[in-house]
Design brief:
Blueprint lengths: L2 E4 L2 E4 L4 E7 L8 E7 L6 E7 L4 E2 L8 E6 L4 E6 L8 E9 L2 E4 L3 E6 L1
Length: about 110
């Protein structure tokens, strides 16, 4: 599976962005997908998790501001980010885990100005 993320950019604090991650094949049977981010000088952290049936989990660090969803027809997962803060700046990566194999997209940069 190849993953391609889109939608990053420069946004002012308080603004919104929607990221998309398009898979090269069907995602309907993929065990687990997620969005991670990595800020400069920091470890990569998960910001959303999507199960095969579309259930999502959002960590407390971004809960209430970030939501994610899955579209099996478009083979795409989304990350909607609202009320963005400068500390949300970083590279955002989509991830898939299926049958013991893991796949990473190349990332899209999000920069939030204060």
């Amino acid at each position: 599976v190849q993953l391609q993320a889109y939608g990053g950019g420069l946004v002012e604090a308080g603004g919104s962005l929607r990221l998309s991650c398009v898979a090269s094949g069907s995602i309907s049977d993929i065990d687990f997908m997620a969005w991670y981010r990595q800020a400069p000088g920091k470890q990569r952290e998960v910001v959303s998790m999507i199960s095969e049936n579309g259930d999502t989990q959002i960590p407390d660090s971004v809960k209430g501001r970030f939501t994610s969803s899955k579209d099996n027809v478009k083979n795409t997962i989304y990350l909607q980010m609202n009320s963005l803060k400068p500390e949300d700046t970083g590279g955002y990566y989509c991830y898939a885990w299926d049958d013991g194999n893991e796949y990473w997209g190349q990332g899209t940069q999000v920069t939030v100005s204060s």
